[in-house]
Design brief:
heterodimer; A: 364 residues; alpha/beta; Arc Repressor Mutant, subunit A; 2 domains; 7-stranded mixed sheet; 3-stranded antiparallel sheet; B: 599 residues; alpha+beta; binds guanosine-5'-diphosphate; binds iron/sulfur cluster; binds magnesium ion
Chain lengths: 364, 599
């Protein structure tokens, strides 16, 4: 769901800002794309992300959720997540979500500090966050907060305060993301011109360490490189990705992994729209790997989990033994101290979480 | 063919003064090639030559011209003009009795005009001086005539006015070639004596040997003997270059051509050797060539260790085609198995490297080039050192000697001061100044070769706004206060990064080197100290701080493919790194030694 009130300077998602009048076209095209399923499929988890799904007016939001659940009826014990932003998330919209069976909301908080929010070009303030969290606590208590660290101008003390304030709102789940500068974003260009300074390595590390050290004290256990949750509140949908299990995907920029084949739709909303409306495939990129490369991919996404990769599970998913696909790299990093062997497999050490990409690159 | 009707000549000039273009014109005028076959600088058929617009290899071509009712065979040997290729020039000259000396009508006498003219004079050739490119809108004919007289003692009445491009004066050139150059001496009835002046490897025919016949006759079916190589072969084909290889019945005295004898062994053909008949050998070989002195060396290592044998084969082929290039196997702790290759100069090195990568498709790691050194040891033995690694760290050296060159500059009079300053900065010793008319001067210096080869030419061009030219010749070795500077990465010496320099420069360059390496080597999980040292004394130090955080924040459904591709690309990049201990050093770092200049 690509619509947003405006585009934040660091964002490189598929986002359409200031074109709310096209929401009807979007729903129409989505309906067509979903119809390619032929028949409804029961799923364990459903996730509507964006963009800002809750930016849609109530009537459109209602239609979106109806569409989603009619094609993807949920199994019992299902997880149904929707992404939301604090600005404009009122009781009425939350009611619509709840009425359709949404039982998890991921809230784009990022920060409580006015200066940091301004740098990030977010359109809400701390009060709106608190109000949204209060409403959610009553209707959909399984909610998660997204936070960003390493923002230019943000100090370590300020970040610690952000963590504490987030915890105080009573979420079940917290995601912490180091700010990245993606090609094509306003931030990227401003950094290139020297108008924006990336936080120093050391500070980013200290901030990440603060999240890793402090959140567990409030019983948020780290279960993935950027994700922390109370017991039983992992995001089951996202765990599908790290376990390299299959999933569907619909909408502009959406990705799917079916029968060992990864496909990504056109990231441009208008391209996706025109193609779907004119009966053409919206797929832009198909990635079909050899079994060995697919196994390596399974390994590197799996390593993101705190629990790491289980030998038997890996063998079952990929058809390979761990050492067969990356024995040398694994041995090297067990020595370098970034990986460790567990009773049943391997995982990143604490130090390894700071340098996960170095390990991943060597495993490819 | 009666030698009376044969003329062998070569064309010499400063680079870009029009040798190749004139050669084209001579081929076209005599119908050796047709207008349709014509492409510019037709003799420059190596890829590198066409790309760089320079002649690297000497070429031979037989052309026929009718003069006063007689058919003459004119064998033209086109030569390279760059200072690195003097060796090719002198070999070509030995196959000739005369030379066309071209001087650009605007640029006038340049450094390599002088060097090449003297080479021709030394080889006892008749010189036909030409002012070339007289079709140019701006010419300085009068001044150029004056310069030719001042520097080379050339009489203005002997000078032809030519344009290789438009064809002006070409008939005069033919007349002069036939009238002024003596026919080759030689006895058709005597035992065969032919000089090998070049060779190349052809995938289908094996070794093609380029020869000039001095005495006797050579035809297919004969059994030949290489006099110093002592090997015998049956001739399958003889022919001439016109300009492509063209079979002919026989080659007689004075003629230039090729032999195909089904030779597969690259090593059996030596440039400078004499070919004779196995059944009736000559008493003594022709005087050969002085072996070329490689002055610049570098290590070449295959990136993939499995390419080592392939690289050896390719180097062998390359050295057959280029006698001035040498190679011996060596090993490096840092780079594994490779070869130490010797070159005449930097351009020569670049060209060989480019040819290797292109023609052989082998990815190479090349170490920074160095000149060759001579060590006088305490026991009075002299040792040649082609690799800084070989300099003993423990002492025992009585004198450390470096190659010295005499450099001849021709520069605009107003830049004399800056050029002299450049030479002073580079440890030069002033020799002479000579004015070539009002505006230009010839300046001679003795300089260490190491100070000349890397970038002196570029510096000269920039301080003279392109007008200055230079040429140099090695005159010997001389003692200097030289030291070996080692580089230690994380406490360990990286052999392939060692360099030799003058003690006075060691600290400054050592610092620069550490800085450069700091930029080239990416952060690791740990801190990496980089040090420059003379023996056990550390003279400079930099530290690459540890990589503190390297983790992708988001990796969800839509990110996986993109991120995996990005990581896979980084992985590819890492394959071009050499693992040294725990540290990965990129290929570029090995050359960074060079880029640490004067500042
Ligand atoms: N105007 C003019 N240009 C020429 C003439 N001969 C060569 N050139 C140009 O000078 C440049 C160098 O010529 P080339 O034959 O490659 O010189 P070489 O390096 O001595 O072989 C080329 O751009 C030619 O087109 C000539 O007679 N007149
Ligand atoms: S609200 Fe979220 S999706 Fe929308 S522009 Fe900002 S960061 Fe991107
Ligand atoms: Mg040329």
């Amino acid at each position: 769901m690509p619509f947003c009130a405006h585009r934040c300077g660091y964002c490189d998602f598929t986002v359409v800002a200031g074109k709310d009048h096209q929401a009807g076209d979007f729903l129409l095209a989505l309906e067509i794309e979903l119809a390619s399923l032929g028949q409804p499929r029961e799923v364990q988890t459903l996730f509507i992300g964006g963009g800002t799904p809750t930016h849609l007016p109530v009537s459109h939001l209602d239609r979106l959720l109806t569409l989603a659940t009619s094609w993807f009826p949920c199994a019992t014990e299902h997880e149904f997540s929707v992404e939301a932003n604090p600005a404009g998330l009122d009781a009425e919209k939350i009611d619509v979500l709840a009425a359709h069976g949404v039982n998890r909301v991921s809230l784009g908080v990022q920060s409580f500090d006015p200066a940091v929010l301004k740098t990030l070009e977010r359109d809400h303030d701390a009060q709106q966050v608190e109000a949204a969290a209060a409403l959610l606590s009553q209707r959909i208590p399984n909610f998660s907060l997204d936070l960003i660290f390493g923002v230019p101008g943000q100090s370590l003390a300020l970040w610690r305060e952000t963590l504490a304030r987030a915890v105080a709102l009573g979420p079940m789940h917290i995601s912490t993301y180091g700010l990245t500068f993606e090609k094509g974003t306003a931030f990227w260009n401003r950094r290139a011109k020297g108008l924006l300074n990336q936080a120093p390595d050391d500070l980013e590390r200290d901030m990440y360490a603060a999240a890793m050290d402090e959140l567990p004290q409030y019983r948020f256990e780290q279960y993935e490189l950027s994700n922390f949750a109370k017991t039983g509140f992992h995001c089951r949908h996202n765990e599908t990705y790290w376990a390299a299990l299959p999933y569907y995907g619909f909408g502009p920029g959406a990705a799917r992994y079916l029968n060992g084949r990864r496909e990504t739709n056109h990231r441009s909303f208008s391209t996706w729209l025109t193609r779907v409306l004119s009966g053409k495939s919206p797929v832009a990129d198909v990635d079909e790997l050899s079994p060995a490369d697919r196994a390596r991919e399974t390994l590197i996404v799996g390593l993101r989990r705190t629990a790491g990769v289980d030998c038997a599970e890996f063998r079952a998913t990929s058809g390979f033994d761990l050492d067969e696909v990356a024995g040398a790299a694994i041995a090297r990093h067990c020595t370098s101290g970034l990986l460790e062997r567990t009773a049943t497999g391997i995982r990143l050490t604490r130090e390894g979480r700071f340098l996960a990409d170095s390990v991943i690159v060597d495993c490819l | 063919m009666d030698p009376k009707f044969i003329r062998n000549f070569s064309i010499v000039a400063h680079i870009d003064h029009g040798k190749s273009t004139l050669a084209d014109q001579l081929l076209l005028k005599t119908g050796t090639i047709t207008q349709r076959e014509f492409r510019e600088q037709i003799l420059d058929d190596l890829d590198v030559e066409r790309e760089r617009g320079i002649t690297v290899k000497a070429r031979a071509v037989a052309i026929h011209h009718t003069y006063q009712g007689h058919d003459y065979e004119l064998n033209l040997v086109d030569t390279p003009g760059h200072v690195d290729f003097h060796y090719e020039v002198s070999r070509s000259l030995a196959a000739c009795e005369g030379a066309l000396l071209l001087v650009d009508a605007f640029q006038g006498v340049q450094a390599q005009t002088v060097a090449n003219a003297y080479a021709a004079i030394d080889a006892n050739l008749v010189i036909i001086p030409c002012i070339n490119k007289i079709d140019l809108p701006l010419v300085r004919t009068e001044e150029v005539l004056e310069e030719m007289h001042t520097v080379l003692g050339i009489q203005r009445k002997d000078v032809l006015m030519v344009s290789g491009k438009s064809g002006i004066g070409i008939d005069d050139v033919f007349e002069a070639l036939i009238e002024r150059i003596p026919p080759p001496a030689g006895d058709a009835a005597a035992p065969l004596k032919a000089l090998i002046f070049d060779s190349k490897y052809d995938n289908y025919r094996g070794v093609v040997t380029y020869i000039r016949v001095r005495d006797g006759r050579l035809a297919a079916g004969m059994k030949i003997l290489f006099m110093s190589g002592r090997s015998t072969h049956e001739v399958l084909e003889v022919g001439q270059f016109r300009p492509d290889m063209k079979k002919c019945d026989e080659l007689g005295p004075g003629q230039v051509g090729y032999i195909v004898a089904g030779i597969k062994d690259l090593g059996s053909v030596r440039v400078g050797d004499t070919v004779t008949l196995a059944s009736r050998p000559a008493d003594s070989p022709l005087p050969g060539y002085k072996a070329p002195q490689q002055m610049v060396f570098c290590g070449m290592y295959p990136i993939e260790a499995t390419d080592f044998e392939k690289l050896r084969e390719e180097l062998q082929k390359m050295s057959l085609n280029d006698a001035s290039f040498s190679f011996v196997p060596e090993t490096s702790d840092a780079l594994g198995f490779g070869f130490r290759c010797g070159f005449l100069g930097m351009l020569h090195m670049e060209i060989i490297q480019q040819r290797l990568e292109k023609e052989a498709e082998i990815d190479l790691i090349q170490t920074a080039p160095n000149v060759t050194y001579e060590l006088l040891m305490n026991d009075d033995a002299t040792v040649r050192v082609d690799n800084p690694q070989e300099v003993p760290t423990t002492g025992g050296i009585k004198e450390f000697r470096e190659p010295i060159v005499r450099v001849n500059f021709i520069v605009p009079a107003e830049s004399i001061g800056t050029v002299m300053q450049l030479c002073e900065d580079r440890r030069g010793t002033y020799k002479t100044t000579e004015y070539l008319g009002m505006k230009r001067a010839q300046l001679a210096y003795e300089l260490p070769l190491a100070e000349v080869i890397y970038d002196m030419h570029d510096r000269l061009k920039s301080i003279t706004r392109g007008y200055g030219t230079m040429d140099y010749e090695v005159i010997g070795f001389r003692g200097a206060d030289l030291v070996k500077v080692d580089i230690l990465v994380k406490g360990e010496r990286v052999d392939a990064l060692a360099t030799i320099m003058h003690r006075d420069q060691a600290e400054r360059r050592g610092r620069g080197l550490c800085k450069r390496l700091k930029e080239e080597i990416s952060k690791h999980q740990f801190e990496i100290p980089i040090q420059a040292a003379i023996g056990s004394r550390i003279i400079a130090r930099e530290t690459i701080s540890a990589l503190r955080k390297n983790v992708t924040a988001k990796c969800y459904g839509g990110d996986i493919t993109r991120k995996r591709k990005l990581w896979a690309k980084q992985r590819e990049g890492k394959k071009r790194l050499k693992q040294f201990g725990q540290v990965e050093i990129p290929q570029k770092a090995f050359l960074s030694v060079l880029e640490v200049g004067d500042d």
